[in-house]
UniProtKB/TrEMBL annotation:
<dbReference type="GO" id="GO:0016787">
    <property type="term" value="F:hydrolase activity"/>
</dbReference>
<dbReference type="InterPro" id="IPR018550">
    <property type="entry name" value="Lipid-A_deacylase-rel"/>
</dbReference>
<keyword id="KW-0378">Hydrolase</keyword>
<protein>
    <submittedName>
        <fullName>Acyloxyacyl hydrolase</fullName>
    </submittedName>
</protein>
<dbReference type="Pfam" id="PF09411">
    <property type="entry name" value="PagL"/>
</dbReference>
């Protein structure tokens, strides 16, 4: 089969292939996990920790992290749907309540995005972590079916909710928006929703 044919991984994902079904199943499982861990066990006690704890971060958050993500690209408009995969390094260096991170993503239409930014880990119920973040980076369009974001410089704003799994690992879901803030002739933007898995680097090396 020729590499230039219409069949591709992205086409399989858009047609409801195994990758898309697996991603949907993973997102469903993570929603159940998050709902289950968000409900405190037993009656409230006066000595219970506050719902929101910004700083200092607990040990399971205050460490270098490796993050793996997978999600649905352009899921809401469905004009240029694909599956996106990403990898991030999140530093344990903290200035006030923000920490730096770098990452890269690729979707099944071949578009690439490398970025760097800042985030803040907000601990909820001592079990969940809400992580807003902002990043900027270089974007490159993939094949002819890939969505054109209008400019090489793109900005990403994201909200992520994860639950502790033990051993410092977390899993959850995220939603982000990527756009060029009007720097290009066009600025269609794109939204991505997906699942995330976070593991401390110290457990890998």
């Amino acid at each position: 089969m020729k590499l230039g044919s219409r069949w591709s991984v992205g086409g399989a994902a858009r047609a409801g292939g195994p990758a898309r079904r697996l991603a949907k199943a993973a997102c469903g499982a993570l929603v159940g996990l998050l709902l289950g861990t968000a409900i405190p066990n037993g009656p409230a006690r006066a000595e219970d920790k506050p719902i929101l704890q910004v700083t200092p971060a607990p040990p399971q958050v205050d460490t270098d992290m490796l993050v793996v993500t997978g999600g649905f690209y352009d899921f809401n408009l469905k004009d240029n749907e694909s599956v996106e995969f990403g990898l991030e390094y999140r530093s344990d260096y903290q200035l006030f309540i923000v920490k730096p991170f770098v990452g890269a993503s690729v979707n099944t239409d071949g578009s690439l995005y490398g970025y760097a930014g800042i985030l803040s880990d907000l601990v909820l119920f001592d079990r969940l972590v809400l992580t807003p973040s902002f990043a900027a980076g270089a974007w490159k369009q993939g094949n002819s079916s890939a969505k054109d974001l209008g400019y090489w410089l793109e900005f990403r704003s994201q909200i992520e909710l994860t639950a502790h799994l033990g051993g410092g690992m977390r899993a959850g879901a995220y939603f982000n928006h990527v756009s060029n803030a009007g720097l290009g002739d066009t600025n269609p933007g794109v939204e991505v929703i997906g699942a995330t898995f976070i593991v401390p680097l110290r457990t890998l090396f």
